[in-house]
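User: Hello! I'm new to structural biology and keep hearing that structure can be predicted from sequence alone. Could you demonstrate with Winged helix-turn-helix transcriptional regulator? Please show me the input and the output so I can see what each looks like.

Assistant: Of course. The first part below is the input, the amino acid sequence of Winged helix-turn-helix transcriptional regulator. The second part is the output, the predicted structure written as tokens.
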Amino acid sequence: MKSDDAVLALGALAQESRLAVFRLLVKRGPEGYSPGDLIEKLGIPAPTLSFHLRELQRAKLIGARREGRFLYYSANFDRMRGLIDFLTEKCCSLSDTECDSACVPIPVARRRRA
């Protein structure tokens, strides 16, 4: 992922409602939600939700599929993984024996409690 793509994706997520939509879609998985489901679950007015969905689509963090006359939105997991990889590109992994002091891995057990 290029820096400008990461900035676009991070910018799209840097808004409370969009972040909530994205996190809900991540939880749902590939099945996704219809706009009506998202409105019901998040309490976001339809015009506002439409704006946020467009921003997340523009950043390629979500995609839409049509089933008959219904539209379903779901998270783009490849794009999400690409963003995570970009953010952690220079960071050590849990399997590395030498780590930069700025990048200390957190043991799996501690991450689950946080």
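User: So the tokens describe the shape?

Assistant: Right, they're a compact way of writing down the 3D structure. Reading them back into a model, for example: The beta strands are 62-67, 70-75.
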